[in-house]
Design brief:
It is a single chain. The two termini are 41 Å apart. 41% of the residues lie in helices and 13% in strands. It contains 15 helices and 9 strands. Strand 2 and strand 3 (65-70) form a beta hairpin. The strands form 2 sheets. A 7-stranded mixed sheet has the order 6-3-2-1-7-8-9. A two-stranded antiparallel sheet has the order 4-5. It has helices at residues 22-25, 78-84, 111-126, 141-152, 156-162, 169-176, 186-192, 204-218, 237-245, 250-268, 271-274, 282-297, 302-322, 330-344, 395-403, and strands at 36-45, 54-60, 65-70, 86-91, 94-99, 108-109, 130-135, 163-168, 247-249. It is an alpha/beta fold.
Amino acid sequence: MAMVSTENLNGSGAEAPTEVLPALAEKPAGLPPGKYALVGWDMDTTGRRLIDEICQIAAYTPKQSYSQYIMPYGDLNPGARRRHNVRVVTVGRYRMLKDTNTHKILKTKSEISALTDFLDWLEKEKGDGSVILIYHEPRRLSPTMLLEAFTRYKLLDRFKSIVAGFTDSYALAADKCKATVKSVSLRVLARVLLDAETLSVDSALDRATAAYRIVEHLAQGEQQEVGAGGEGTTASKDMVETARLWARPVQTELEALASLKKLLERQNTFRPVFAPLLRQPRPERKRVTQLRRLLADAGLLYDQVKDAWQDQNCAGVEKLLKNLTISAKSEDIQELLTIFDCHFDPNKEPIILQPTVNRGSRPRATSSAGETGEATGSTSDSQKTSTQNSPNKTNNEIKQEITTEPSQPAAAAAN
């Protein structure tokens, strides 16, 4: 995996710039020497926003593992349902979590109960040292979501007393394997490093196990045989040292969480402008999100743009946008100008954005273990849940299915 540069962000005539993933933006500072216990960790969520909830949390060590499903208050978004193969169903008056592959109801706990149990499990694992959580993600969103959940239930102080930091095996593999592989997704690394041709990454426990074994293998050195990882009962000294050097302290992730919240606050000031545009189909909505993020990254607020419009109309907004402190392409600025012009001028018709497609690439279906953390996820035949096993069908729907001919689809058989 080659490290991405930002030299051509404002270049002309070249292909669209490649995004610098947060996991690769800077090398972790590491943790001070000490005694550490390594734990593979991952979690599934109802979405990829900071306000989304955890629906499964899992951890792995060679001796034992931890996995617990959580009943969220809200439903999983379509992308999360496809990624994790679970969905929320209603049986009678009760909401339950259902596996869409096996069609079985999963045993769940409340979020605070599961997080408390997770801390109890980690406390036993840490011994007389501290824990380093190993995960695999290109966008570094999972640690901030976990810290936000612990903050919400006033469990952050206890978590900080147990966990020293997070090690992202994505960044480690991108550095160690950049000369041998083009992609450092879990599936590719499992095939190349762990000799696991068919690794499932749907479950958080599967991904936690794979992340741990990848770090274990990369810490062994080039002279070790491929596929030898995961055979030890405890983390070796080399593995602990590798995870320590590539770890980000909890305080660093807390600072990233604070920065993310400030960014979201700036984004939310533009709600009057972008809220109508976010009702468009997903490709156009993704483009709107990119443009709104440009403004937030530049530190702009809605009131600043409004004042510029009131002073010099479109010329004032154009001057403000061209002085952005971040790299923005000319077409981005022109598109933002059109959006603000239609917003502030009541005589203009609402704009409909066209989705942009990077040259030389095609849309990819990804999972939370893949290389893009904001995609809706991949689909498979196993995820097309049969309506025969749906607990949500009413008596009228069942009667309609009975009276419908076999060649005609049942219109009311949607789950």
